[in-house]
Amino acid sequence: MKSDLVYFKNLLEKNGHNFTVTRKKVLEAVLDSKTHLNVKELYEKVKEKDKSIGLATVYRALNIFNDLGIVKEINANGISYYEKKIFSGKPLHIHFKCFRCNSIIDVDSKSLNLEYLKLNKKLEEENNLEIYDSNIMFEGLCSKCKEELKNK
């Protein structure tokens, strides 16, 4: 077993879940993905490796992974997308969803991330809160779709 999977196996088992072959395959699909995927897209990726895995199995695995903080569920227009949360290398980032192609893009900007941190801190201080996570989603047209529309 790959060393990075050992951590997830231990985390699942510590929380009373078995690290089954199917959960391992779902987890690998999430970890290998460079984009945000919805359940059906993840199901298709997993099904390429194992035709016997059902859609309900993928849903159940993602629910467990979400509860344990392994993945983060991002809801955009009623559709849940998933990205790895643990060891993502991007603990704090903003999302952008394109209305036209439905892609979800991570916005990586040091200056925006700094403002994001300031906003979190201000919310905590002014409202006596302790923030553990947040979701900021901008929506509009991505650069690719803007260019395609411009060239029509």
From TrEMBL:
Which CDD domains does this one have? Fur_like
> Has the keyword Repressor been applied to this entry?
yes
Q: What Pfam families does the record point to?
A: FUR
> Which keywords appear in this protein's UniProt record, sorted alphabetically?
DNA-binding, Repressor, Transcription, Transcription regulation, Zinc
Family membership: Belongs to the Fur family.
Q: What is this protein called?
A: Fur family transcriptional regulator
Source organism of the structure:
Clostridium oceanicum
